[in-house]
Write a structure and sequence with these properties.
It contains seven helices and no strands. The radius of gyration is 18 Å and the shape is flat. The protein is mostly helical.
């Protein structure tokens, strides 16, 4: 997490580094160190990381990138091969399916559903 925010802050925020906050969880700290302290942003990042954390290095794109790279192919070719793996419905389209589900949920429940409606 720290390296990613360093890169982001160096490129987009003139190298102004934000130190981690020990009172925040992993996702909250990621948002905080990027410079976003709003609860909604932290929750969005928490959801994004949750959706993507199940990969554990065994997904199609990572496996393909490693496989092509193990043949000592050009790194750009390895990366391209991995990106091509994202198009399958069992990998990359999972993100689109989650987005479709969230949009459908919002259309069904509205913008401000009650807790009672959410849990029934």
């Amino acid at each position: 997490v720290y390296k990613r925010q360093l890169i982001y802050r160096n490129i987009y925020k003139n190298g102004q580094i934000i130190q981690p906050d020990p009172n925040l969880d992993w996702a909250g700290n990621y948002a905080h160190m990027l410079g976003y302290n709003q609860f909604e942003v932290q929750e969005c990042i928490r959801g994004y990381l949750s959706i993507h954390s199940d990969h554990e290095g065994g997904n199609v794109s990572a496996h393909t990138t490693h496989l092509v790279g193990s043949a000592l192919s050009d790194p750009y070719l390895s990366y391209s091969a991995g990106i091509n793996g994202l198009a399958g419905p069992l990998h990359g389209l999972a993100n689109q399916e989650v987005l479709r589900w969230l949009i459908d949920l919002r259309e069904t429940l509205g913008d401000n559903p009650s807790d009672c409606l959410l849990y029934t």
